[in-house]
Write a structure and sequence with these properties.
The chain is mainly α. It has a domain of 48 residues. It is built from three helices and no strands.
C-alpha cells in the first residue's frame, strides 16, 4: 500500500505528509481495542469462575476431601 509519492526522505517531514494509512482513525481504533480488551476480561472471568465451580462440585463429597487431604 502506498500513501504518497516519496522520492526522497531529505527535507522537512511536514512537507511529505502522512506516511501511514488510516490517518485520523487512531481514536476509533483505540476505543475498539479497549472494548475488545474489556470484553475479553469479562469472558475470562466468567470462564474461570465456571471452571472453579465445576471443581468445587467435583471435590465437594466428603470421600473426595479425605482422599485429597491424604486422610
Amino acid at each position: 500500500m502506498q500513501t504518497g509519492m516519496v522520492e526522497t526522505w531529505a527535507g522537512n517531514i511536514t512537507d511529505i505528509g502522512p506516511i501511514y494509512p488510516f490517518v485520523g482513525s487512531e481514536f476509533v481504533l483505540w476505543v475498539i481495542g479497549m472494548a475488545l480488551w474489556m470484553l475479553w476480561h469479562v469472558w475470562q472471568a466468567r470462564h474461570e469462575s465456571q471452571e472453579y465451580q465445576e471443581d468445587v462440585r467435583k471435590y465437594a463429597k466428603a470421600e473426595n476431601y479425605k482422599k485429597m487431604l491424604g486422610g
